[in-house]
Design a protein that fits this description.
Length: 266
């Protein structure tokens, strides 16, 4: 499953847990972290035994965004990460979920600060849980910068435009409670409980038919900006073939026999 010193990987049942592991720097993105994240997304995509991914941070912190010194090469322990990024100039955008969408559901488990690039990668996840003391925000404009992780495109599509513009244009922090109220996150739990709640949701997903889960996710994203007519055509293309799969037959049979289904991705 890979991993680097700045990204820990762990299998919990059928879930892959990716933990940003640089708490001394508030889990700011480094080359080692970006390479570890990208390798984690690929590992999840390639392993049919993995049915969901949980993204979280170590040390009671999610992520404080980019570490410009680390990206410039200061204090880097291993030039191989820089070599990987030179070989694939798009790697950092894929790692940050700007130019890559995992086919498995991704659940964010947020504790503490989730700001700047942290709020940007959050928008690439599918389901979001946060501890009650978590904070969010896009601070770039306060520094004369632009949030290039996709926020000016994604945020107005994920929350009401008035809230998206306020977050983008003021650069102010948001509490977990306010983030939930405007729809940026879905669950607020006691501090320290985000990972456990995310894994509970993951277990519910993992118990479902994997082909169906992946098709539903693909349909939601592909049809998001289509007309209703075109979106319904995409839905039919994704959904109709599932009814002839062995997994669909197993789901119906298990229901009739009052037992948990055993799905085989077939």
């Amino acid at each position: 499953m890979g991993g680097t010193e700045h990204v820990l990987t762990e299998r919990v049942g059928a879930s892959l847990v990716l933990t940003l592991n640089r708490p001394e720097a508030k889990n700011a993105f480094s080359p080692a972290m970006l390479v570890g994240l990208y390798d984690g997304w690929l590992a999840a995509d390639d392993d049919d035994e993995i049915r969901s991914v949980v993204l979280t941070g170590a040390g009671g912190v999610f992520c404080a965004g980019m570490d410009l010194k680390a990206l410039a090469g200061d204090g880097m322990a291993d030039d191989s990460y820089r070599d990987r990024m030179k070989a694939d100039p798009d790697l950092h955008w894929k790692a940050l979920l700007r130019h890559h969408r995992p086919r498995k559901p991704v659940i964010a488990a947020v504790e503490g600060p989730c700001v700047a690039g942290g709020t940007e990668i959050l928008q690439g996840t599918d389901i979001r849980v946060a501890g009650e003391s978590a904070t969010f925000g896009l601070f770039e404009v306060r520094r004369g910068l632009f949030p290039l992780g996709g926020s000016t495109v994604r945020l107005p599509r994920q929350i009401p435009r008035t809230h998206a513009l306020e977050m983008l244009l003021t650069g102010r922090p948001y509490s977990a409670q306010e983030a939930a109220r405007i729809g940026l996150i879905g669950h607020v739990v006691p501090d320290g409980g985000a990972r456990a709640r995310a894994l509970e949701i993951a277990e519910q997903i993992n118990a479902c038919g994997p082909l169906a889960v992946e098709a539903v996710k693909a349909s939601v994203y592909e049809s998001a900006e289509l007309t209703e007519t075109d979106g319904l055509a995409h839905e039919l293309a994704h959904g109709w073939p599932l009814f002839s799969t062995d997994d669909a037959k197993e789901g119906a049979k298990a229901f009739a026999e009052k037992r948990p289904p055993v799905y085989r991705r077939a």
